[in-house]
Amino acid sequence: MKKAHPDFGVTELCNALGVCSSSFYYDAKTPSTEDEALNVLVKLIFNEAGCTYGRRRIQAELKAIGCHVGLYKISKIMKNQRLKAIRPKTQHHYPTSGTGHKYAPNRLKRKFVPEMYNTYYVGDITYIRHHQGWGYLACVLDLATKYIEFYNYQRRHSALGCMTSHQKYIEMKNAA
């Protein structure tokens, strides 16, 4: 650049060409064979683990084979190779009641379409996953009309909460 026009500085010439002045001083670094081997090793460990290992587990695996590398360098390698660990979904567990469940007698005898409404009700509890965790929805359904007569949503799963929902519905029906 100095040979092109000695009266102008590097910054002025770079601005005239529409190039950042830092690119004039930039010296591209070729990765060393050690870095290339580390890239291959990180990718191999990541793939062998079923794409579930993150930087800490990869660091532990590398340390086990005698290669001491920092977390930041492993993160940088994973980012450059677009390796992102798959996180397993959290499992849903119901609390244990401690006693065996008793089966209720079959009063419907597979007659799911009764002639009169307000005679048979069914209830169900389902869990819904959302961004804050788990929520539980208890519903009471009239079999004749197929309408949801009552529902209750709670953040915790408990049999007491479902029974309370059902009792609230019965009280509401008796009051009407």
What is the fold's blueprint, element by element?
Blueprint: H1 10-17, H2 22-25, H3 33-48, H4 55-64, H5 71-80, E1 121-130, E2 133-142, E3 148-154, H6 159-175
Antiparallel strand pairs: 1-2, 2-3
Helix pairs in contact: 4-5
Domain HTH-like: 35-89
Pfam families: HTH_21
Protein name: Integrase catalytic subunit
Strand order of the largest sheet: 1-2-3
> DSSP helix count?
6
Largest sheet: 3 strands, antiparallel
Report the average pLDDT across residues.
81
Give the distance, in angstroms, between the N- and C-terminal Cα atoms: 92 Å
- Portion in strands: 15-25%
The number of distinct β-strands equals 3
- How many separate domains make up the residues? 2
Percent of residues in helices: 25-40%
Order of helical and strand elements: HHHHHEEEH
Class based on secondary structure composition and strand pairing:
alpha+beta
Morphology call: elongated
Oligomeric form: single chain
Poorly predicted segments: none
Whole-angstrom Rg = 33 Å
InterPro entries: HTH-like_dom, RNaseH-like_sf, Transposase_IS3/IS150/IS904
Pfam family, one: HTH_21
Domain HTH-like: 35-89
Protein name: Integrase catalytic subunit
